[in-house]
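User: Show me a protein chain along with its predicted structure.
Assistant: Here is one chain, sequence first, then structure tokens.
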Amino acid sequence: MAKEKVLVAMSGGLDSSVVALMLHNEGYEVIGITMKTWDYATSGGSKRTTGCCSLDDINDARQLAVNCGFPHYILDIRAEFGDFIIDNFVEEYLAGRTPNPCVLCNTHIKWDALLKRADKLGCKYIATGHYAQVRQENGRYVVSKGLDETKDQSYVLWGLSQESLARTIFPLGKYHKSEIRQLALDSGYTELAKKSESYEICFVPDNDYRGFLKRKDPGLEDRVKGGNFINRDGKVLGKHEGYPFYTIGQRKGLEIAVGHPLYVTEIQPETNTVVLGDKEDLEKREMLVKKVNMIKYAELSEGFEALTKIRYKDKGMMSRLNKEGEFLKVEFYDNVSAIAPGQSAVFYEGNDLLGGGFIK
């Protein structure tokens, strides 16, 4: 007897393809869906469309569905993706911040699109290829890290609602990446098992966000070029290429010689100024976080202790969390380096994801 009907997000890559295979083999009534989020050619880029949007990957996803005998659909969400994710990406850099497009996409685009289509197709669940786990505990749905810590993707899931998590399955959470690759091989999908992974933003496949910003706004470079590099005392050190083209903690590409390494420590968009300092100037003990979404608990008690990560590959630092007006104040137990406004701050209790927000 078939299990529940599940809509599987299939990018055509190894992980999501194996998710579809696993659930199909377990007896779920699988429907595959590939979301076309971005056409790189529309940005003026020279590279072919890659990742979740390539024609090859769409065909690979469809072929697997045909082989297994389950339906497969293509969902074109380029318009809503572009209006929300890409506009926000540009706006954040113009505001002197460093955006987190994958978090926004998961929260506001992908899950919303998947659940709407799941309802239309009569699917109880949706499934993705994220390395994370979800369980129900004390009346709430709790996300925890994937077993393979080198692949854990819980960091980008902090924005999901309880309603979304109630219908989400993460089949890869209890596996290591090597096991997933082996499963593809054992199932006869040799080419799939060989697929490499992409760590770039899907709409910036050449990993050149500066070039992307220039293509999106052809007049940007002329408007912002020639602002000042200054030190923390206000002394002018030289001219820069434009404040949106720098990020907190950046050392390379500054072209300023003072006899020792300099780092971007602050970006001041109002005056087109980039502040440079020593590595020690990047270290801080506290920050404010906005637009917080809690997952494990509806609310945290004052002074709650948590491990806080300030970027995806960050190991995290123990901290104390307290409300401060509309923000959450994070006080670290030791210095952390290169806190970048706009990035995600994500809180953990052991392996469990407490929640997260955007660094102010």
